[in-house]
Every structure is written in C-alpha cells, then in structure tokens.
Amino acid sequence: MTDRRPRVSLARLGFTAEWAEATLTELGWWSGDGPSEGAEEVMWALARSPDPDLALRTVERLFENVPDRRELDTALRADVGLRGRLLALLGSSTALGDHLVTHPDRWRRLVGSPGKEVPPDPATALLTAVGADPDGPPAGAAGGSPAALTGPEAVAALRTAYHDELMVLAADDMAAVGERDLPVLDVADVAARLADLAAAALRAALAVALAEVEGDPGRLAVIAMGKCGGRELNYVSDVDVVFVADPADPATTRLATRLMRVAGEACFEVDANLRPEGRQGALVRTLEGHVAYYERWAKTWEFQALLKARPVAGDPELGAAYAAAVAPMVWSAAGRTDFVADVQAMRRRVVEHLRPDRADREIKLGPGGLRDVEFAVQLLQLVHGRTDEALRSSTTLDALAALADGGYVARDDGANLAASYRFLRLLEHRLQLQRMRRTHLLPAPDDHAALRWLARAARMRPDGRRDAVGVLMAEWTRNARRIRRLHEKLFYRPLLAAVSRLSPDVARLSEQAATARLAALGWASPEGALNHLRALTSGVSRAASIQNALLPVLLEELAVSPDPDRGLLAYRRVSEALATTPWYLRLLRDEGQVAERLMRLLGVSALVPDLLVRAPEVLRLLAAPVAGQADELLRDPAEVATSLRATVARQHDPKVAADTARSLRRHEMLRVACADLLGSLDVEGVCAALSSVWTAVLQATVDSVQRAVGPGPSRLAVIGMGRLGGAEIGYSSDADVLFVCEPVEGADDRDAVRHATTIVETVRRRLAAPSPDPALVVDADLRPEGRQGALVRTLDSYRGYYARWSETWEAQALLRARPVAGDADLGRRFIEMIDPIRYPDNGIGDQAVTEIRRIKARVDAERLPRGADRGTHTKLGLGGLADVEWTVQLLQLRHAGDVPELRTTSTLDGLREAGEAGLIDEADAAALATGWTMATRARNAVMLVRGKPGDQLPRSGRELAAVAVGLGYPPGGDPGVFLDDYRRATRRARAVVERVFYGW
C-alpha cells in the first residue's frame, strides 16, 4: 500500500507548519487520516485561503477568545457564507485577523451569504459609535450634531467601528477565495465601498471635532479629492481633502485641524496638501477664496485633481456650491496653453523619478501601471468633456466606459484597458490587505512565498503548464504591457477632435482626411496642433495665405522630428514673434532649405526657438550656400571674436557695450547650435566656437568697463580656468576665471586691488544681468581660498600664496589656466609664475597621486545628484567628462615637467600628446578621447533639447529621442541605439581610467 500519512495530505492542502496537524486535531477538524466527519467543507475552505497556516493560527486564537467555541464551530460547519468570509479573511489579513481576535464577538457579523443585499450605509454605524445622531443635521452645517464622545474615548470608539466595517467589507471581498460558489465582489464595488467608508469616517470625525472645539465655528464642508473623491479608494491610503468654510476664521480652522487629528488617530491619514498653494496655503478658505485662486493662479495639475472633487462631509449646501463653482473651470482647463503637454510631462516626471530597481514591480506608478490608465483617461476626459457631459465622471472605470460608448476610445481598447486596470487594482488591494500597509510594490521575484500568497489571494490557479505564481507573473506582464501600449496610443496619440476649419460647435471625432493625416503624422496632441494651425492660418491676410501654402510642407518635415507637437508650437511662437518682419515668410517660401532646416531644428531643440525669436537674422544663414561660397553657418572663430570686439568697442556706454556683447553672443550661440544640430560642425569645432565667443565677450566687456573707469593704479588680467581655459566651453558652461592685478609704478598694492576689484565687479554685474538667454556666469571660485578669498589678488600675492599654501588640487586646477582678457603682458607673467607649480620637475610624488585619487573618489561619491544614473551622467558618470579629464591631468602633473608637449590646456590635445609620448597606449588614448567626445556631445545635446542645463541623459521618451536625433541618429529610429553607443564608449573609457588613473 502507498504511504498516505496525514502530513502529506495536509501539505497537499497547502499547510506547511509543523503544528498544523495538532491544531486541526484539537479543533476537531482532523482525525488522523483526513478531515473529521462534518468538517470536510471547513478544511477545504481553509485550504483555499491565501495562507492556510495563517488562517489556522488565527482561527485557533479566535477559538481561545470566543465565549462559546461550540457555537462558532457549528456555524462554520453549517454556514457556507461564514466559512467563505471568515477563513479567507483570516488567511489574507494579519491586521484584520488581530482585530477579530481582539473583538471575538464580531464573527457573527460575517454570517450569511455575501453579495445578496445592498450593504448598509456605514455612516450610521460610525456616527452612532461616537454618540452622534445619524439623522440629525450633519456636523459642519448650521446646528450640526456633535458627538457625545470626545478625546481618546471617541478615537478608540471610532477606530473600533471603522475596523468593524472594514473587516466586513474585506470579508465580502475575499469570500469567493474561500468558497468558489460565492459571488465575486467586483474591484470597483470594493473601491466604492471603501470610499464611502472613508466618507463616513470623516463625518464621524467631524462630529467629534465639533464636540471638542470651543466656540461657535461656522459652516465647514469637506471635499474629498483623489481616489476618495472618485469613489475608487484603496484599503490603505491617505484621504485627500479640501476644506471650504464660511467664514474661514480661526474657529473653522481649528475644527478642520481637529477633524484631521481624530481621523488620523482612528482611521487613516487625512491629507490636505491638494488645497490652493499646497502646504503653504491656508487650511480652510471661503468658497470665494477658492474660486479666486483657481481663476488666477491654479496650474494644470490642480484642475486635473479637481476632476475628482466630491463633497463628502460637513455642510451639504456649501459642498454643493463648491462643486458647482469649480466644475466649469475643470471642463474648460483643456483650453489652457500647453495643457496636454503639461499633463504628459507630469506623467513622464513620475516615471523618471522611480527607483530603477523597482520600476518593473510598481503597480501604481511604473510604466504599465495604474497611473498610466488614470492619466490617459483623465486627459481624454478633460479634452473632450468640454463638449460631452457624458464624460464627466470622477471614477476612472465609469469614465473609460463613457469614452468607449462615445467613440473616443475603441470599444476593444476600452474593454482591454478596463480589464487590465481591474486586475492591477485587485493586486493592489490584496497587497495592502495583507498587513494593512500602504504599498504598491509587487514582491521581489525571488520571494516565492510572498508571490504564492498573492497568487492565491488574487484567485490565480495553475493552468497545467505553470503553477499559480507562474500564472500570476504572466498575467502581470501581459496586463502591464497592454496598459502601456494603450496608454501610449491614447495618451500620446488621441484621435483628432476636429480639423483645422471646423468650429468648436461641431468638434467631434471623425475619420475625415485631415483627421487621418494628422494622426498618421504622429501628433501626440492633435487638438493642440489644430489650435496652432487655426492661429497661423486664420484671417485673409497675405501672411495667412503664405502659411496655408507652407504648412503642408512644414508639417511633413515636422512629422519626422522627435517631437512634432513642440516643433509646431515653436513654429507658431517664431511666426508670431516675427509677424512684422517682412522677409520672414518670404524666405521660408522661396528658400526651401530654410524651411526644411528650420523644421528639423524646431522639432528637436527648445533652445533654438528661444534664441531665434530674439536673433531672427540667423534664419538667413540656413539658406543653401551660394555656389563657390562657404556655408554661412560656418565661420572662423578668430574672425568672429575680432568682429565682436570691434562692434562692442564702438559703444561708449559700458552698459550698452555689455548688452551689445550679450546680443552678439546670442547670435553666435544660435548660429553654432544650428550648425551643430544640422551636422555641419563637429564637437571640437563647437567647443572652439563657443569658447572663442565667451572669451571675446569677456575681453570686450572688460575693455569697455576699463575705458569707462579710466586710467587707474592697476593693470588687470583675466585668467581662464576650467573649460574656458581649455577652450572646451559648452552651451551651458560657466566661465571659470582668476583675476590678477599689478600696481602701476608709484601705486601701492591696496589701491591696485581696490581699483581692479571695482572693474571686476562691474564686469560680472553687467554680464549677469537678468536675461532670457542662457546665463553668463563669471565664476571665480577657483581662486585661492575659494569663495572666502579675495576676488582679486596681485601677482605677488598669488606667488606668495602658491609658494606657501598651495595644495595639490590647486596645481591640478592651474593646468587649464590661460590668459583670456585684460593686460596680455601681465597674463603672460602669471603663466610663467605658475608653470613650475603645474608642471613640476620630476612630476608629483606618490603621496600627491594618492591625494588626487582620494579627492576624485570623494567627488564621485558626493557630487553626483541624488537619483542620477551614474551610467548616463555626462559629467560625473562612469567614463564621463570628469573621469577622462582627471586622467589627463594626472598624466600632466606626473610627466609634463619632462615632456613639454604635454603642456596644453586642451583635454584632447593632452591625450594625443600622451599617446605619442608613450605615456599611455594609443588605443587607450583613443578610447578616452571617444568617451570624452561622446559625453561632451551628449551634454551639449541635452542643453539644446531642453533649453536648460543638464548633465543627466533622459532615460526615455521624446527627450531621449530628440537628443539622439540632435547627435545625428536617424529620426524615427530607436533612441536606445544611441544609449547603447554612449554606454559602450563611456564603459571603454572607464576601463582605461581604472587602469591609468586609479592603477587598478
């Protein structure tokens, strides 16, 4: 005979604990070779619970506490509803199991079949628990009914009543897990009941607060926001609220504050940070105050949040008035400038800030998560709900159904998205129910026990090929991918609502030619595109006629760009800014290459249009070069510098001179950016051109200020450091400098320094004046003693400091020093003075090498921004700019004293010379040069694409695609190819750094 020991049978039923057999025998449900007579169904219900061991242990504790064990045992054997509810609940939630053990009489509330009757309003139970009249005027209204209980007694009573109701709801939710023939409670119904329970708790907490607050507070309405407002709450969640008061005085503020404390101690955290001005704003406001704020100051996300606003407690009339006042603003918000782009940017920011090691397990925030569904649905609601009131639901699933019914979303897409959303909400509910903790994270892949529990709790069953965990993970992957695919389709490519000539009154989804055309061209916001087209082509002017002729061609060109939406917006901005420029549209019409090039630039870069509206003359340089002549986008840097200085020198007023220098810099920066993005200028050419412009601006401004100040007791020289000294300036680089002076004959050092400091401060102030152009920052922090040291020193003072106090890092910083402005002879003598410091005979010793390595390691550890990806941070990342530059500088400090060819401020020149001198393998030198070049180009491209400085490469999305195209990768291609190339180049550079710099 086959050995059929009880332990094997229990293991097959899902029990793993050693004590299970003894406990079941003691309870009378196990007889040694199988379930006891009459206990078979109890055993099967236990076996079907998510965690049979947990359920059994909690049942044992419950039996120890109930007054009549026989009554409970009899009920479990006879009542299928009780079995399904109780045993599934106890195997699902340790927290609610503990609640039931603490209050053992509550098991009777689980008797009967769930889903047969409409559950009672929980507000009655919670208000009664705190001694408030459920039928009286609500607390917060005039003559509202306060609670009879206050203080800790009220909190304890409310906590117990809240958990009683939560226990019953969770038991209903889990019942079908324990008994298959019981009805399944839809996740949307669970979420709605949870929201109603939270609303009831807020009403009870308000009644307690009213009894505790002294004085006579005015009317107060509690507006639920977020998931509570949308009746789609989780088991464990903050409840977002907004308070509306009449009047908004200290008494109503105390009432609201007390409500938050009571609810927080008894039930859940109450979060009022969605109120106007967030945490900095007043906790309560009048209705008029709310309306005034939303009309004048509110941002796009605030109207998106208001979509779910719902009065749930307090004065019902005041709450209804609030809802009526904000609704028109919500449903007109989509008409705001850049509304769609703002909503899309919010979603991208959420994804970008996820921890990379958790992103693929994030049920709520990750790609393919709940937020993808909610953002897509809300965007479509806000865009199309302006003309279709059927879409104005605060509940995601109801709104999605309405979108599908109205034709805004394909029925299959709507049904699939709803099914996947329900699945993810089910997982979220089960995870939170287990320990009543706020979580949205799937268990780690190696945590098989947690995954097995979740699979059983979510009703996953083996399918013959996979166990329950395998089925769970397959379903998670399938649903997350489906959500992400549909999110991209709906969120970034919603169907077009109207064609450019249709009026808003007839705006409806259609498959007309213009709809198909713009959708096919790839606009993420077709409605926004239509608004731009209407603005560009409206009227009967000649300009409108030219735009009508141009736009089909321009749209085709924009369509292949990474971001056609931003490109069209930029084109509209440029067109409106140049509306009075007579040659602008004529140039686009008659010079085909100008239009083509302009669309390529606008579809990639945010910096180009910002500069173009203030330097439109650069547009002429985009024309095809005349035969036999050079491309006007490409100019000799020395010629540009000479022209800039000559132009500024003609200005007698130093302020006008500085403004002229800045204007010419804007022109040249735009020219270089266009040549860069169009592939006409390599990275060395870009750095040389920008460095030459920066140097010329400094020279011209210093000269103009010196002319204005007149002869004085000192000569001044400006020494370029860092990237300025190395002629490696990028679009976002500051100008690192040292200021050195020397007294003229007969003057003392103090007067010389004072005079030179006046000139320096004037120059810095003129260049740093506020401007929409990229900042002109003259940074002198590399001077002796840093920010605490004197801004200007004499040559002798520098000599004394470096002889006595100089540290290794300062010698390293001086490697890139070169005169860039001011007195040329003084600059030359400063360089002669520092040469022995930065190029020491016989190089630096082992102790100094160790110190440099230590400083570099500390920089790597401390200066990388939080959340940055070291693999794609262009400056401080692995194999990035800092890695290569420090390696070259260490070679210079060790060998430039003996190898004069190494005495260069240029990183790439230093690498070439080190390779030719045999100080580094030529293949290693090439790898470092490639890594540095790739990082420099990528850093410049980030500035061009975003229009603001940044060292971190985008992780995904249109920005990453734009960076890739800006670097010459084909439009429409996979930007991951660029990322792969970047990582490969910097990885190889890092390997050399580890050998050459660190000596590993």
Automatic annotation (TrEMBL):
It catalyses: [glutamine synthetase]-L-tyrosine + ATP = [glutamine synthetase]-O(4)-(5'-adenylyl)-L-tyrosine + diphosphate; [glutamine synthetase]-O(4)-(5'-adenylyl)-L-tyrosine + phosphate = [glutamine synthetase]-L-tyrosine + ADP. Keywords: ATP-binding, Magnesium, Multifunctional enzyme, Nucleotide-binding, Nucleotidyltransferase, Transferase. Involved in the regulation of glutamine synthetase GlnA, a key enzyme in the process to assimilate ammonia. When cellular nitrogen levels are high, the C-terminal adenylyl transferase (AT) inactivates GlnA by covalent transfer of an adenylyl group from ATP to specific tyrosine residue of GlnA, thus reducing its activity. Conversely, when nitrogen levels are low, the N-terminal adenylyl removase (AR) activates GlnA by removing the adenylyl group by phosphorolysis, increasing its activity. Its cofactor is Mg(2+). This is Bifunctional glutamine synthetase adenylyltransferase/adenylyl-removing enzyme. Residues 503-1000 are annotated as: Adenylyl transferase. Gene3D superfamilies: 1.20.120.1510, Beta Polymerase, domain 2 (3.30.460.10), Nucleotidyltransferases domain 2 (1.20.120.330). Residues 154-322, 596-831 form the Glutamate-ammonia ligase adenylyltransferase repeated domain. It holds the Pfam family GlnE. Belongs to the GlnE family. InterPro entries: GlnE (IPR023057), GlnE_rpt_dom (IPR005190), NT_sf (IPR043519), PII_UdlTrfase/GS_AdlTrfase (IPR013546). Residues 1-495 are annotated as: Adenylyl removase. SUPFAM superfamilies: Nucleotidyltransferase (SSF81301), Nucleotidyltransferase substrate binding subunit/domain (SSF81593). Residues 345-491, 855-997 form the PII-uridylyltransferase/Glutamine-synthetase adenylyltransferase domain. It is an enzyme of class 2 (transferase). Signal peptide: none annotated. HAMAP family: GlnE. GO terms for molecular function: [glutamate-ammonia-ligase] adenylyltransferase activity; [glutamine synthetase]-adenylyl-L-tyrosine phosphorylase activity. Its EC number is 2.7.7.89, 2.7.7.42.
